[in-house]
Hints:
Helix 9 crosses helix 10 (about 195-205). The longest helix has 14 residues, at about 65-75. By secondary structure, the protein is an alpha/beta fold. The strands form three sheets. Strands 5-10-9-6-7-8 form a six-stranded parallel sheet, with helices on both faces. About 40% of the residues lie in helices and about 15% in strands. It starts with a helix and ends with a helix. The protein has eleven helices and ten strands.
Amino acid sequence: INGLSKKGFGVLATVATGYGAKLLEAYPDVEVRDGRLDAGGMLDMIKSSGAGLLIDASHPYAEAVSINARAASRRAEIPYIRFERKKTALDADNIVEAASFEAAAEVLNNIKGNIFLAVGSKNIKSFTRRIPDFGERLVARVLPMSEALKVCEEAGLNAGNIIAAKGPFSVEMNTAMLKYCNACIMVTKDSGDAGGMAEKMEACRKAGIPLMVVKRPDNGSEKGLNSIDEVLKQTCFYLRGES
């Protein structure tokens, strides 16, 4: 966003939560709209704002958002750019990969010991529905927000199953939490460097436990750009004809 503003582009940013809107207060020149949008809502926003380009910078696991964004850009007949965090090189010996949150839960149901979940609140129910004794051995780390806590409670978790904290988390902090929970495994998404993957991997290595990584969804989209500079270059090409 900062790079787009510096190049003189008008920016309209959409966020799903008040927390996201709060983060964007650092950019006073950016118009912010708070609230979840389906494809129709995105299309209306594009038309009302006169936007000439849609940049999808949603989380790698926000599959529905990307699908809706592509659909809206096609219907509005404007270019679409996907910016995506670079995937993590999962080359450590203690890495276990799972194809989905549901598949991860099925594996965890067949192992003994406490489970430390760092997958966000949205996917908690995938685990509580498949692990009958989740109340005794599952601890979820989520953002300290009422919305996240409500989802955890609806999934059946209580105060003893929840660590509400905001990152970034250092190796030492991750290690301390794993020790506190007496975790035999940690479960996470591949959120890239920005999501603290390196720190999680090192913490699990130090704790001597495996790190289960749920793979990113394949929503059929074209490959995203991993570089901010490349996004800016593409934006200048589409909106100004600069090569």
